[in-house]
Amino acid sequence: MTARRSDATRAAILAAARERFAADGFERATIRAIAADAHIDPSMVMRYYGNKEALFAAAADFDLRLPDLGDVAADRVGASLARHFLHRWEDDETLMALLRAAVTKEAAAERMRSVFARQVGPVAARLAPDPAQAATRAGLIASQMLGFALCRYILRLPPVVDLTAEEATAWLAPTIQRYLTGEAQPG
Q1: CATH number for the domain including 15?
Q2: Dist CA 15 CA 23 (whole Å)
């Protein structure tokens, strides 16, 4: 019975942390506020997670939920990924909180690196002319999508914010496709 209560407490803490980090960002979210949202004492948060950085890392276990791309023609994967990324950014505040925190907190930056390496790396390995370049290609895709997300959702640059999802996909897809299947041009 204690294990079930412990699991329920952890789940309540993580749910409250995800909502609080998404609403307030890493810097403004407090252990006290997260505990209040979870209806527990702040000492319980510290008992289970140790500190705010560790709690954030646990709460920001983000899944890109990449679609099965097996049926997508190799030359259309860039468009599919661009469309998918845009949809995920639009619908998940956790990713925004993670992106904001990754700029200043190493635990969040490591989580972001892990998400892209673990989830985009296999797609790059499958499509790359040289699978040994998968990590580089996944990193370049991350640079494109994270840069776009930063400009659209956090900095809110008007020309980028004003793009429809279709327009943004049209701009992003060729670059992602090149990162997946293209060859680097010398010079």
Answers
A1: 1.10.10.60
A2: 12
173: CATH: 1.10.357
Q: Are 38 and 86 spatial neighbours (Cβ–Cβ below 8 Å)?
A: no
DSSP string across 29-59: --HHHHHHHHTS-HHHHHHHHSSHHHHHHHH
Q: Are residues 148 and 175 in the same domain?
A: yes
The parent domain of residue 101 ranges over 74-181
Which amino acid would we find at residue 113?
R
Q: Which amino acid is at 64?
A: L
Residue 52 and residue 78 in one domain: no
> Which residue type, as a one-letter code, is found at position 187?
G
**How many domains are there within the chain?**
2
d(CA 73, CA 77) in angstroms, rounded, equals 7
* Residues 93-129: tens digit of each pLDDT: 777 777 877 888 787 788 888 888 898 999 999 999 9
DSSP code for 66: -
- pTM of the complete model beyond 0.85: no
